[in-house]
Structure formats: structure tokens, C-alpha cells
Amino acid sequence: MAGIEQQLSRAYTPITIGPLTLRNRFIKSATNEGMSPDGVPSRQLVQFHAAMAAGGAGLTTVAYCAVSGDGCTLPNQIVMNRATLPHLRALTDAVHAEGGAVSAQITHGGCFIFVKPPGQGRPISASGGFNKIGLMSGQYLKREMSVADMQRVAADFAAAAELAREAGFDAVEIHMGHGYLLSQFISPLYNKRRDEYGGSLSNRMRFPRMVLRRVLDAVGEDLAVICKFSMTEGVRSGNRIEDGVAVARELAEEGAHLLVLSAGMNAESIKTMFGSSFPPENRAVVTNPIMKAAMFLQSLSEKPLEFRELYLLQYARKVREAVDVPLAYLGGVTSAQGVAQVMEEGFDTLAMGRVLIHDPNWVKRLGEGQIQRSGCTACNRCVTMMYTDGGTSCVLGQPGDAQLNRMPAAG
Ligand SMILES: Cc1cc2nc3c(=O)[nH]c(=O)nc-3n(C[C@H](O)[C@H](O)[C@H](O)COP(=O)(O)O)c2cc1C
Asked: For ligand 1, is residue 331 a contact (CB within 6 Å)?
């Protein structure tokens, strides 16, 4: 590798994505914070992201902002509406005061939902039929979306992006991975349609592209428009890396400003996403007996997966070879050597989740030469912390402040 120092210092140089210039190439990836009780962004959420900016990240991503009430996967999720606006403004102001930029991850859960909003019919998805995720919330059947539904949801994404701009965000990240609505269209596991929105990959991309186009038209001149997707789904009959490369080509062709290269599906292949096994006690947070039993049975047949630094690199390289659009490498960046390698291999930015939950000052400390690697053990216990009163935190450090997490961000 050409001098580690040289590649490492490149990570600390500015980069332009669409209309946005970041002070460096480090992106805090979206990690559901559990810091918006009853959907109200809390002061703890503001502090969490301000700390990421103060700790050196060029861009921090607010996770899991639903574009509409029916797009919520979990209770307590942020919904992009006018009631949320002042709280989001408090957050973006705090991040900007620390010299960072901030992105809103906008999402629709489709049939991947654990709550049943009152008065709502069947959850929507690419195709109808049995809804295995709905076992937790009693929503056993899902409904195939009509073209009118698609237009409504695409408009909701555009409206959410406009609200993000009004709230002071610098970017929006459209969530197209991990098994949520747009991923349900891209994935052959979920998309069984026989019309022009199903079948070939380019047909399955038609609705996600429609959403991207609407968002670009709405805010693309002012905000960076980022897409996060799963390069491989990590399941036998799901999308493989060849499909992931084709997805990247389609998104680049439509004009996305940056692609965040994730992998795996929440329900089917969580280990592919995280590159390491989940501890058995993570099952304790699931209260539904059917899901608990299903998780237990799954764990019996699963081989433990040992964490490897840059565990998605072999897939990301294939995407890098195929497209010119700016890319964010994601997955197991944990050391100076890893950062340097990602730069050396031609990625424009790097997105990081667990390492920055473990230590929000990691980017700064690495840049100052105080540390060479992270103390994160990839134990994945931070995922369980999402449901605690203080919100997502590293179990090796201090838990979040439950009191601050009950206080609305604004006022
Ligand atoms: C606690 C936790 C919550 C997460 N929530 C989200 C989320 O809301 N949206 C998302 O796209 N990815 C989510 N992820 C996945 C991360 O963004 C990232 O893809 C993953 O942690 C791999 O990156 P890493 O190796 O740098 O941690 C979450 C990860 C963690 C640890």
C-alpha cells in the first residue's frame, strides 16, 4: 500500500458530493438512536449528533426518519412532519455549530413493521400475501402496491426531503437496503410482481428510481442525495453481488450523488450486515413468543461468524470497478490501516457505525495520531441498547442519559 500516512491524510481532505462539500471523508452511518420517544427528537439525540460532529465526522446521519406515519417500522420513530420540524432544526443547528454536516435518512418500512398504526389496513409492499414480519404485530397479510400507491409514497419521500431542507439538513439518505419498502422492490425475495415493476432487475428498480428522481427534483440542487442499499442480500435466493453492481449502475444513471454500500437484510441475514454474530441475550428484548422461538431456532442452525475488519470489501470493490459515482465504503472500518486501505482502493468516503457509537471522538483522535485502532469489539450489544431509556450506546462505555432522552429537542 502506498504510504499509510499519505492515504490516511487523504481521508481528512474535503470532498464534494452533489451540492455539498464535506470537511473530510468520514461519515457517521445511520444507527437507529432510540432517541425520539413518541416520535419527538430528544435533547439526547441532539447531543448524540453534536458529539459526532465535535468528534470529527464530516457528516453525521440521523437514522430512520419515516416519510409518513404508515412508513414507521418501530414505535418512537421520527416521522418527517411539521410537528417534528423545530426539533430537527435544533439538531441541525447543534451539528453545524460543531462544524459538521448532517443528513436525514428517509425511509418507509413497507411490510417490515412492528407496530400497527390505528385505522391502517394491510401494510404495503412490492407484493401481497403472507407477511412473516407482521407476526409480531398481528399484520399477517401484506398488500401489493398499486401504481397510485407508488406515486403517493414517492411524493411522501420528496416531501420528507423538502422538510429536511427546511430543517437545515445538508443531505438526505434514501434507505433502499436491509428489507424496507424500497429494498422490498429491489429484492427477488419480496418482489413477485408480474407487471413492469417486477421481474428483471431493471423492472424491480423502477419504483426506487422513481423515488430517487422525485427527491432529486425536489431538493437535489440544495442537498446531497445519498442512496444506501444492500450490495448482496446474503441469502441463497436473494440478490447477489452481480445484482448489487447493477443496482449501483441504475442509481448512478439516475443521478444519485453518493452510494452507501451496505449488505444484508434485517430479517433474513443480519450477520451479513454486521459481519459478526449476535449475542444470545439480544433475543431478550424481543417479547413476542413466536419471534422469540423463531430466533432461537435460527440460532441453533447458525454458525458463529467472527468479525473481520473491512468485511464487505470484496463486494464493494466490484461496485467500485463498475461505477464512477462517489461511493462510501461501509462495514468494519476499525483502524488507521483500514481507513488507509479504503482510500487506497479508490473509495471517496467511508461510513462508520459501531466504532463511532463506541467513541464519537474516534475520527479526531485518529487524525491526531493518539490512537491507531478502535476499542469496539463488534459484539453488537449496542443494537439492544436502542430499546433502553437512554437510547443507543456502547455497553463498554456510559449509557445514554434517560432524562435528557425524555426532553424534547426544542423548547
Ligand atoms: C445500533 C445500530 C443501529 C442501526 N440502525 C440502522 C438504521 O437505522 N439504518 C441503517 O441504515 N443502518 C442501521 N445500522 C447499520 C449501520 O448503519 C451499519 O450499516 C453497520 O453497523 C455496519 O457498519 P459498521 O461496521 O461501521 O458498524 C445500525 C447499526 C447499529 C450498530
From this structure: yes
Asked if 391 and 44 touch (Cβ cutoff 8 Å), the reply is yes
Strands 141-144 and 327-330: unpaired
Average pLDDT, the chain: 94
Question: How confident is the model at residue 277, as a pLDDT?
Answer: 86
Give tens-digit pLDDT for 336-380: 999 999 999 999 999 999 999 999 999 999 999 999 999 999 999
- Percentage above 70 pLDDT, the chain: 94
Mean pLDDT across the stretch 10-19?
98
The ligand 1 atom at the shortest distance from the C-alpha of residue 354 is 27
pTM value surpassing 0.90: yes
CA of 42 to the centre of ligand 1 (A): 20
Kindly tell me the burial class for residue 329, based on how many C-beta atoms sit within 10 Å of its own C-beta (0-12, 13-18, 19 or more): buried
Phi-psi region of 56 (alpha: psi -120 to 50; beta: other; left: phi over 0): left
Identify the residue whose C-alpha is closest to ligand 1 atom 18.
Answer: 353
User: Given a cut of 60, is residue 56 above it in pLDDT?
Assistant: yes
Q: State whether the beta carbon of 31 lies less than 6 angstroms from ligand 1.
A: yes
Predicted pLDDT at 293: 60
Distance CA 339, CA 350 (A): 8
Question: Which pairing describes strands 59-66 and 101-107: parallel, antiparallel, or unpaired?
Answer: parallel
Residue 41 · residue 367 · CB < 8 Å:
no
pLDDT of residue 279: 78
3-state secondary structure labels for all residues of 5-44? HHHHHHCCCCEEECCEEECCCEEECCCCCCCCHHHCCEHH
CA 101 from centroid of its chain's CA atoms: 17
Which 3-state string (H, E, C) describes 298-314?
HHHHCCCCCCCCCCCHH
Task: Kindly give the interhelix angle for 313-322 and 241-254, rounded to the nearest 10 degrees.
Answer: 40
Q: How many CA atoms, within 13 angstroms, populate the side-chain half-sphere of residue 183?
A: 29
